[in-house]
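Dear support,

I submitted the protein below through the web form. The confirmation email said the job was done, but the results page showed an empty box. After a refresh the structure appeared. I'm attaching both so you can tell me whether what I see now is the final result or a partial one.
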Amino acid sequence: MPLASHISPNKDIYTLQNDSIEIKVKKTGAELCSIKLLSTNQEYMWEADPAIWGNSSPVLFPIVGMLKDQTYILDGQKYFMKKHGIFKYSPDVKLASSTDDSLTFKLLYNEETLKQYPFKFEYLLTFKLEKCKVIIINEVKNLGEKEMYFTLGAHPAFKCPLDPGEKYDDYFLEFEQPETAYTYPLLPSSGLLGEKTDLLLNNSRILELSYHLFDKDALVFKDIQSKSVTLSSKISGKRVRVDFEDYPYLGFWAKPNADYVCIEPWYGVNDPVITDQNFKTKEGILKLDSKSTFTATYSISVIQ
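What the results page shows now:
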């Protein structure tokens, strides 16, 4: 039977488990920081080593990635916003509710968010367990009287390699179906989106991992048909799959020589190098009517 969620003694970590897996979620930014298979005690999430990259799965809202000069223009006014927006940094994310198999966190607009993002919103983030799967449900509610503009995304980082004795290049990413796709690289100097590069996938489902794959920062895909990607070991056969039916963009990323890989479903992308910074016409931008709700769901499954 599922076990009820509880707060760890330091009050900064929430834990939820069922018969198969256990997850942990940090209070700040409601960041998923652990997925553990109980039968083997195998951890699947990156440890968030601050000397390399101190996150494990930040929530990206109301922007994905970087704005040019960290600013955008809305109705003639300039606003400043750091990379990936406001949710991941917010100490105001609260646990709104919990059940035996779910945790729901909430961020409500406040004076600080309005300085960066002039919309009245409520963001609900739910983690729900189903056997060896974590279902992550994002609900954005427009509480204001005017149309609201935003993008959102996920940024889960998985340990790679999973087992001692394995190497990074013992792993590969497998798409749901064969893909013929170009990648749009992020430019390390600015974090902005570059132009389409050479073909990375040519009627292939497999992308081999290597430490050099991310030499030029993240790889961004705009035109793939697959709605799931699996990280797999050639040695142990261990796998973790990310399903992202609701998301039109996908990113892969890791720091140079770091032992993790991010599989990132996005609804929106970084600003391109050439942009007028108009938020309403930003690529991938979502427009939500007053008093309406937008929902996007993805899932992470441990496969043995």
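Response: this is the final, complete result; the empty box was a page-load delay. The longest helix spans residues 111-116.
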